[in-house]
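sorry to bug you again but im stuck and you know this stuff better than me. below you get a single protein, a line of residues and a line of whole numbers that encode the local backbone shape. mainly i need to know what kind of three dimensional shape the backbone takes. anything you notice is useful, everything is just below:

***
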Amino acid sequence: MKNCIIEYLNIAENKEYNNIINNVVDECFKEEKLDTTNLYISITLTDPKEIRNLNNEYRHIDKETDVLSFPMFEKSEIENILQGKCIEVQDVLGDIIISIPKVEEQAKEYGHSFERELAYMVVHGFYHLMGYDHITEEDKILMRPKEEKILNALNILR
């Protein structure tokens, strides 16, 4: 079973994007021991207008963003799944929506490759699905090293 399903909304399908995303998601699943579960992620690649609409509809924030994550499980439920209380049927861990033009813009802004920025958006969204956040400094201390570990393992560096 694939660890993710990739959909395109208002942008052209791109094999390079698919390769980057699948590699990152596979590494995330391996690192977090989800590779033996029946879970998968739905990832939609879209444009700024669509992600702004979704951000407004679901978060009541009327502005464009780079990535949105919609988890389907609470952190405690994921921990139960990992402890062998596994789900029997295939189920979605959550949805990640990424604005490809925003990825391009931020890659230039931060002075690194498109691959690095897209990979970061995927791993960042993944850890939101896993129940991590970065609102407080304490949260960042838990989330950021996990993100960097995945990117380093794939040799996707700044």
